[in-house]
Write a structure and sequence with these properties.
Blueprint lengths: L1 H22 L5 H21 L5 H24 L5 H20 L4
Helix pairs in contact: 1-2, 1-3, 3-4
Membrane topology: Multi-pass membrane protein
Protein name: Multidrug efflux SMR transporter
Organism: Halorarum halophilum
């Protein structure tokens, strides 16, 4: 169950990171509210996940999910570059996330 909570925490991390792009430096009230709400939910879920998972593994996976999701959505939503090296680096992060899951006995 901790892995599902951690994945959900990572999805909320993506939400708050993308929210930063829409909040214009936290100056727009509605996007700022959504960003802060997603941040709080993400942190609470991460805290729950580390009750059962090693903090180093959980944090690395949480940030990895956030990095992959945010970089991917940055390409789709904010016209960030989608170069081959960038896509390859995102892929390396995915491999790292999967590797941490597999090697931590989190099946």
């Amino acid at each position: 169950m901790a892995w599902y909570i951690l994945i959900l925490a990572g999805l909320f991390e993506i939400g708050w990171a993308i929210g930063l792009g829409y909040s214009d430096g936290l100056s727009k009230p509605l996007p700022t509210l959504g960003t802060v709400a997603a941040l709080v939910v993400s942190m609470v879920l991460l805290a729950q996940a580390v009750k059962d998972l090693p903090v180093g593994t959980a944090y690395a996976v949480w940030t990895g999910i956030g990095a992959v999701g945010t970089a991917s959505l940055g390409i789709l939503l904010f016209d960030e570059p989608a170069t081959s090296p960038r896509i390859a680096c995102i892929g390396v992060i995915v491999v790292g996330i999967v590797g941490l899951h597999v090697t931590s006995g989190g099946h």
